[in-house]
Design goal:
Among the domains are: 73 residues; 57 residues, no CATH class; 98 residues, no CATH class. Helix content is 6%, strand content 50%. The chain contains two helices and 49 strands. The strands form twelve sheets. Strands 33-34-35-36-37-38-39 form a seven-stranded antiparallel beta sheet. A six-stranded mixed beta sheet has the order 3-2-1-49-48-47, with no helix packed on it. It has a four-stranded antiparallel beta sheet with strand order 7-10-11-12, with no helix packed on it. It is flat. The N terminus is likely disordered.
């Protein structure tokens, strides 16, 4: 294609070129400044991700940000729900009538502006895990219209029409919402897509992820299993289906008899047990079963490999069983050979780190490799599988190790931190990345810098806080003996009930 007539190249206007370059630099600098503001640049070069938290003061609820500044004044009687700490969406409940159960809701943003006003009774969708820890769906909200429920996303867009009698979370499962219509139940996801049509009289989760499928009950009162593609995994013909599965094997009750069946509904194990507690990762290894109140291991052909003499059995790494006997915990293999004596208070296996954590009677964590060798001992204060390290308090020091049990410097593990705990003459202080003392050694105890830049400091039995420059934010004045976690944001301290995830001023 012709580019047209070629003209003589003009000479550059140096002044204009310099002006353009300067303008571009200004624009680039502006972008970084704006980004710093949005991300919460605290003025030290350290970027603090913006977050919001429920705040409690003088028996009222409000909202603070990650710097401890008040966003919504504590003025509400009920706790403000923040379903996603990174989003300025705050759900407030007010005018509560405790006799009738009636109440009103509104949604505020960080400017204290009411949003989503076109919807009635906008609420977060609460869920909880197997340890009863409460959390909320972090990208979808429920709303009401003319007595029916629908869904909106965090931009306020309607993604599921208000045509359901109820919308709740499938317990313990993310992105899995139980919808009810005309007395029947189905499942929707957080994008507003219908995963299972509302045609069942009951739906519960089979496993810890929606990919495991759902246990459903039909109009005849019989149970089956359906996956997220609406495929019938197990025919709805059983009196009961337990939440025990693996290797296409399922634990069911049919005509009053408990048994293990395969995906085709064929019997696999039908006798020799009171209960089937677990299905092992290696299919040929079989199942964990209960007999006379004790647990053992049985192969799929019914052959007993480990006699039922244990109070509890659970699989760790494939081929290893964490075993409890006489209130003490150890590890055995699939034939019952003892690999770790039953001498610990508890043992947990971390699959990502591929390590065992065994707690002894002195509350020390014995960190073992996959060959059951104790590599480190101390009080485990953090297991960070995202960044590949764990933190131990060993004596009076906090030490860091990677999952190869190599000791790492705190500076390498926590490159964004500006302060690091140091101890001298039985007192705690803080140093910078180069080891220079920033906070003198005058405290009886201290906590490491949290992701918002604050550290806890303890003196004469009382706690206070310093900021990321070492400045005292609040003198040690709080008695926090009854608190499970020491964590400050400015003058605010993490609440007593860690399940509620809020900060308060004492």
């Amino acid at each position: 294609m012709s580019k047209g007539k070629r003209y003589e190249e003009p000479k550059l206007n140096i002044k204009k070129v310099i002006a353009v370059i300067l303008a571009i630099i200004v624009i680039i600098m502006s972008i970084f400044i704006i980004k710093g503001i949005l991300d919460g640049d605290d003025g030290t070069g350290k970027i603090v991700s913006q977050s919001y938290f429920a705040a409690f003061k003088d028996n009222k609820w409000g909202v603070i940000d990650a710097t401890g500044n008040t966003v919504i004044d504590p003025s509400y009687e009920e706790m403000i729900i923040i379903p996603n700490s990174k989003k300025d969406i705050f759900l407030c409940v007010y005018d509560v009538n405790y006799e009738t159960g009636e109440y009103k809701t509104k949604v505020l943003n960080s400017k204290n502006e009411e949003i989503f006003t076109q919807y009635q009774k906008v609420e977060a969708i609460q869920n909880k895990d197997e340890n009863n820890q409460i959390w909320y769906e972090d990208n979808v909200l429920r709303f009401q219209k003319d007595g029916k429920y629908g869904l909106i996303d965090f931009s306020g867009k309607e993604i599921l029409g208000a045509e359901y009698d109820s919308i709740t979370a499938v317990e313990g499962i993310k992105n899995s919402l139980l919808i009810q219509k005309a007395g029947k139940y189905g499942v929707a996801n957080n994008e507003g897509n219908i995963v299972l049509d509302p045609i069942y009289t009951e739906i519960t989760n089979l496993g810890k992820e929606s990919s495991a499928g759902y246990i459903v009950r039909n109009d005849s009162g019989k149970y089956g299993i359906v996956d997220t593609s609406k495929n019938q995994i197990l025919e709805a013909k059983y009196d009961q289906i337990n939440k025990v599965y693996g290797n296409d094997l399922y634990v069911v009750t049919e005509n009053g008899a408990k048994k293990v069946v395969n995906k085709a509904g064929e019997d696999v194990i039908t006798q020799g047990f009171e209960e089937i507690i677990g299905i092992l990762k290696t299919k040929a290894a079989g199942v964990i079963y209960k007999s006379n109140g004790k647990l053992g291991i049985m192969e799929l052909d019914g052959q007993v490999k480990v006699q039922p003499i244990y109070d509890d059995l659970k699989e760790g790494k494939e081929g290893s069983i964490i075993a409890t006997k006489d209130a003490k915990v150890g590890i055995i293999d699939l034939t019952g050979i003892e690999k770790v004596a039953c001498q610990y208070e508890s043992i947990e296996y971390n699959e990502i780190a591929d390590i065992y954590i065994a707690e002894d009677s002195n509350f020390n964590s014995n960190i073992m490799d996959s060959n059951y060798q104790v590599k480190q001992i101390g009080i485990l204060t953090e297991m960070n599988t995202d960044k590949g390290y764990f933190e131990l308090r060993q004596g009076d020091e906090y030490k860091y190790y990677n999952f190869k049990f190599e000791e790492k410097n705190a500076v390498d593990i926590l490159p964004n931190n500006t302060l690091f705990i140091s101890k001298k003459d039985d007192k705690y202080g803080f140093v910078d990345k180069n080891g220079n003392v920033v906070v003198n050694y005058i405290y009886d105890d201290a906590t490491k810098q949290n992701e918002y830049g604050y550290c806890g400091i303890k003196k004469d039995g009382k706690w206070g806080a310093i900021d990321n420059k070492g400045n005292v934010v609040i003198e040690p004045t709080y008695n926090l003996d009854d608190y499970l976690m020491i964590d400050f944001i400015g003058r605010w301290h993490f609440g007593k009930d860690i399940n509620m995830n809020y900060y308060n001023q004492l």
